[in-house]
Amino acid sequence: MESQTVLEVEVAALSDVGCRRSNNEDSFGYDSAAQIYAVCDGMGGMAAGEVASSTAVSQLLGFFIAQNTSGDGSAPVEERLYRAIEHANREVRALACNRDELRGMGTTLVAACLDGRRIVIGNVGDSRAYFLRDGGCVQITHDHSFVAEQLRSGVLSVEEAGASPLQSLITRAIGTADFVEPDMFAASLEAGDILLLTTDGLTRYANAQQIAALVLEMSGDGERAGGLPGPRDLLTACRALIDAAKAAGAADNVTCLLLRFSEESRAQRILPEL
Fold this sequence. Notes:
This protein is of the alpha+beta class. Helices cover 32% and strands 28% of the residues. It has helices at residues 48-68, 77-98, 146-152, 158-163, 200-203, 208-219, 231-247; strands spanning 5-16, 26-31, 36-43, 106-115, 118-124, 128-133, 136-139, 183-188, 194-198, 254-265. The strands form two sheets. A five-stranded antiparallel beta sheet has the order 1-10-9-6-7. Helix 1 (48-68) runs antiparallel to helix 2 and helix 6 crosses helix 7. This is Serine/threonine-protein phosphatase.
């Protein structure tokens, strides 16, 4: 039998209310069969933020999966993800416009889809995707926030941006307008790569280097000689990231979703006994 290599995906996710909030307005979700993963950070009074983020996640996943079983399944993944984000925006917007208690709500969104040996990412707002490889960590997405835009234009320094009281002011969100324009990114994958989707409840307290140190230490990625660790270690890494944010004060909810990609031979794979 001819050996064929494919990318296997391990996933783990955790969400925490943080140190100061009484409710959790973050949401995450994924469908391993459809290979789509998402994290959202809601905003709005009372329970509106929770409604916005949970609605965005469920609508994004449902629409993306539905495209796979329809005539749209042959479209490029970038196009299908873009459409799914637009659909999520329409659904959250409709709720916000039609129910007084939800008026003004919205949510950030960052989503990733596996496409063969590529990862495709879309984002709206300031929830982020980080890519980890060979001990390094880089932010893939660009924040849609007032402070980030001032930083990119050179108006603010890194130190001024970090101290700004306007860090929570986002300039683009799901559900706050009739139309939304997500940013789209793509990257080639290698065995051992790790992707982090996270809310700003973490990124206010940890930079890329600190994130890499925590993830690689807790996921066991430094012990590659004995084989890649299992998903339980990714869960430990999620907890370590959340604990680091909470140790620093965690004024907001904190959500982390980690994906690790490994290469495995279909011909040689041994399934566990049930």
